[in-house]
Amino acid sequence: MLYLRKRKIALKKGLMLLALFFLSVAILQIKTICFSFLPIKSSVNHAADVGIVILVCLITYKPIEQFVNYLFREFFFKKGIGFHTQLIHSTNHLVSCLDLKEFSNFLVNTLSDLLHVKYVAFLIYDQKQKEFVPGALAGFNFRETRKIRFEKDSPLINKLRESSFPVLRFDVLKRVSWPEASRFNTDFELLRAQVVIPVFYGEEVIGFITLSSKPSHLPYLPHELKLLHDFSGRISFGLENAIRFNEMKQRYEELKDFQSRLVHSNKFSAIEQLATGIAHEIHNPLTIISGKAQMLLLNRDKNFLTAKAEEDLKMIVQQTTRAAEITRKLLVFSKSSPEQKAPLSFREIIDDTFELISYQTSIDHVRIIKEISPNLPAIKGHVEEFREVFLNLILNAVQSVERDGVIKVLVDYSERDQSIEIKVEDSGCGIKKEHLSSVFDPFFTTKQNSLGLGLFVTQRVVQRNGGYITIESEAYKGTEVTILLPVPETNEKQPIFSTPVFDEKVSYQGAYIDQNQSKEE
Amino acid sequence: MLKLLVVDDEEEICDFLRIFFEERNFKVSTALSGEEALRKVEVEQPDVCLLDIKMPGLDGIQVLKEVKRRYPKIKVIMVTAIETTEKIEEAVRIGADNYITKPLSLEYLEKDVHQKISDVA
Question: Would you say A127 and A247 are in contact if contact means Cβ atoms under 8 Å apart?
Fold first, then answer.
């Protein structure tokens, strides 16, 4: 470094001497030419020449020095003074920026614009994941970005903590032992970094910036490092603010989400209690009504019943049974099912459901698109419950689409949520905004001849399996129901149709032929 | 004459079941609570007992336990308003001979009672 700095000074001095020399020669030449035009016989006066040269040197020294310095600044940093002021100016914006994403993007863009470096990375410490994750990156391709992650105690971070000053790649590599150097080198290589600038808040590293080499491929100079250090010091407060704000925003979202789920579950448990009570209370009067009617019927000869009265009594018995069914249906789903859990085959359940309603879909010319991933992890559940879930969702979709509508059923594994994601979309009439919050309520319906228990029961089944259900809809555009069912961690990811339970069944003719996408007209 | 005890906290239900079974030549007594049921069991020694599960005070399960402990020969048919699987399983484990859900199908109930009695004979 020192050597380089000396070379730079020597170069500067040399350049200046050269400039002064040529200037003096030029002046002397001009003097000679001028004298040759004058009638005075010139005499060689060395003393005068030396005097002129000294005079010229004295007058032009400062301007030439300035000019050379200017050239040098241009050479090492293209926008010398401009860079400095712009960098300082940008910190003003960063300090007042609360959005972490905007903060990161602005920082990375500013640095890559001002310094003209190819790769700039800005990593922020994520409290939740306990590691440094990219806030914003410039120059990296997508595949690379997925690998960029640093643990809190990784060597590079420790190094930053130790030095509390921008760290140069070759400086680090020079000073550490070989195996360490190779590890550091991997880190630097991953980030394409020549210099790493830590951002401190108090004693802690809350983020860091890495820059690749300058366009001139010359090393970063101490005053540049100092500048970058100052820069990181100035933005640290802003970054801390943005991180805290971001955390707060996330917590707020989580809280909001949790609250909305809580509202649903609260609503449910109250309704469940109510339903249990109602079922008990209703079944007694129903028993009496039905019992008396049955007794009249059984003694029809003694009672001289007319044919009409007999018919009516039968109707009374039937209808009491029906009323009892409603409460029973409600309650069966509020209690855990006695049936054993078995591996679920969504393909089979969905195929069966469409089979069930094929008549309706064929007369309405409804187009059905099924996209069921063949590599779903196995999850267990009550098959009957999930038949009910799909029947409810698909029936709702079929009822809402008109002729030539489209219904799309997607089942896939979501790596991010570690869940099976089920989507049922339709191009139907949608749900009115004011109804959207009530669709999961029991007995809520906008249709005639509907109990209004479909989505209620569906939600209950999904919740019982640890998942959750959301519904998005726009009137006259369509509805999208999304269900996320968590996959237990112990489950190995294996294709569902290789499980033994499934192999015994042969009721899914043709289900495998259209593995990824099948369309039925 | 076969003896039947109907236990239900709903008087109307007891009444029409009494009438129904008396018409079919049963000697029917009724009880409106678990405590009353246990007293009646002791006095009447019925052949069959129709026992409602959900009652204030002693509930059907507790009565069943007591009846089966003291008089294992008495046939007990549990009557439930709704199928609570755990409750039914518990009742069957304790020794209930069958269960029937409300609203009752009288034909089915009659058949069942006769069957339980013929099991004894």
Answer: yes
